[in-house]
């Protein structure tokens, strides 16, 4: 992760927009008012890698602790980070192969989910009335480094990734939820129960059963072993004894083992959205204040000086531009926009993916396009330490099917592209 001192400096930095033109395009609003707004992303021609950019209105995602835990339940279609996912389709979850890191075999850890429905006019279908995107990753930095090589392979015989994005969508009338809008008062209930989840992670389907108590369920042998070592062996004996007593005619019944979901998952947050253009307005208001510590023109000079310093160094120039844009709202963890020509805000110019580097949808064969990116600030909220082998990234970008295709499996895997911080850019962090 970037050191905190430069980020603190960027929080105080006021600078004019890098672009002359801005367009505000509306993005669908989620049923719960969570994410589906606008994030500031760059647009450029497919063959053009210069600094000329146009801006479009995009959504910034911020995390905060929910006022009520029930707001993150699946029947309220939340946007959230950390904890366990709120599965849109609670029954037909990704299978065992999909839920594990392809490099080390460990079950993937839930990062975040975004509720991003599309109207029938936008998608040409009614199956996108409810639509949620999920991101998972292995928490091993070693796997993430290996993932860097895998993501550049075109048409590999076997896809090997440690970061995965899934898309799930449902029509308004479906077996899991009411067709009516939720009340958001704590009384909303799903229309059907979901699959039994792993007793350790609470994330993936628990299709493996403890051979002793026959109650605890697991997504993998690894989580069964971890749970056993963490104390399930004691609980297991108690439940087994209770069951034996119950079978002998006692009124005592054995309770089902609880879902643990404690320290081994990242802290849980609600994702709140704000339009980045609001921060442009705030900056303009600040610059009108005669008591402003740093004038707008002074910030322009600071930016120009920084860019001149890195003249000829494309990566550091991109890194500077990236941080200047992020400094408008330093606490943002997510940038979202579903727009055909939208491009992510890239920290480095080297390793920039071209259209040919983004594989087409493996389900319908149509192109994938940018939809959202996750920023490294999320690691701070997850409590990831800034140590040598700690998990770190510059940005993680999700590309999804332009057609938002339907049919087939409930959770369709999309494409994640990761940029890591290069050694050259760390000198200016």
From TrEMBL:
InterPro entries for the chain: PDCD2_C, Znf_MYND
Gene Ontology cellular component annotations, sorted alphabetically: cytoplasm
Region (Disordered), start-end ranges: 1-32
SUPFAM superfamilies: HIT/MYND zinc finger-like
Feature: compositional bias, Basic and acidic residues: 1-11
Ranges for domain MYND-type: 198-236
Keyword vocabulary terms for this entry: Metal-binding, Zinc, Zinc-finger
Biased composition range(s): Acidic residues: 18-27
Signal peptide: none
Molecular function GO labels: zinc ion binding
Record has Zinc as a keyword: yes
Source organism superkingdom: Eukaryota
Pfam families: PDCD2_C, zf-MYND
Name the UniProt record assigns to this protein: MYND-type domain-containing protein
């Amino acid at each position: 992760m970037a050191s905190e001192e430069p980020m603190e400096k960027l929080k105080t930095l006021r600078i004019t927009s890098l672009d002359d033109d801005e367009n505000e395009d509306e993005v669908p609003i989620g049923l719960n008012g969570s994410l589906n707004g606008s994030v500031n992303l760059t647009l450029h021609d497919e063959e053009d890698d210069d600094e000329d950019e146009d801006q479009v209105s995009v959504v910034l995602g911020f995390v905060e602790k929910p006022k009520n835990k029930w707001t993150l339940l699946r029947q309220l279609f939340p946007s959230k980070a950390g904890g366990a996912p709120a599965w849109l389709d609670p029954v037909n979850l990704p299978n065992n192969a999909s839920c594990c890191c392809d490099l080390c075999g460990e079950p993937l850890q839930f990062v975040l989910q975004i509720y991003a429905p599309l109207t029938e006019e936008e998608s040409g279908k009614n199956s996108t009335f409810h639509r949620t995107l999920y991101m998972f990753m292995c928490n091993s930095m070693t796997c993430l480094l290996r993932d860097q090589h895998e993501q550049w392979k075109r048409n590999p015989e076997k896809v090997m990734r440690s970061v995965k994005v899934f898309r799930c969508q449902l029509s308004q009338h479906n077996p899991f939820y009411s067709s009516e809008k939720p009340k958001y008062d704590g009384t909303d209930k799903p229309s059907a129960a979901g699959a039994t989840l792993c007793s350790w992670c609470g994330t993936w389907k628990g299709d493996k059963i403890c051979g002793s108590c026959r109650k605890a369920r697991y997504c993998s042998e690894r989580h069964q072993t971890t749970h056993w070592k963490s104390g399930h062996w004691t609980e297991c004996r108690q439940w087994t004894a209770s069951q034996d007593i119950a079978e002998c005619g006692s009124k005592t019944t054995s309770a089902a083992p609880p879902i643990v979901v404690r320290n081994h998952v990242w802290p849980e947050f609600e994702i709140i959205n704000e339009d980045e253009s609001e921060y442009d307005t705030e900056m303009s208001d600040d610059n009108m204040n005669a008591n402003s510590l740093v004038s707008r023109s002074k910030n322009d000079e600071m930016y120009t000086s920084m860019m001149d310093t890195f003249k000829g160094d494309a990566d550091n120039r991109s890194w500077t531009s990236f941080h200047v844009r992020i400094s408008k709202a330093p606490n943002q963890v997510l940038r979202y926009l579903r727009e055909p020509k939208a491009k992510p805000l890239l920290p480095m110019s080297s390793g920039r993916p071209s259209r040919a580097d983004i594989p087409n949808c493996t389900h319908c064969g149509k192109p994938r396009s940018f939809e959202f990116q996750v920023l490294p600030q999320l690691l701070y909220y997850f409590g990831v330490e800034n140590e040598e082998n700690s998990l770190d990234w510059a940005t993680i970008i999700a590309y999804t099917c332009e057609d938002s295709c339907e049919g087939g499996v409930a959770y369709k895997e999309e494409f994640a592209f990761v940029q890591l911080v290069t050694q050259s850019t760390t000198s200016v962090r």
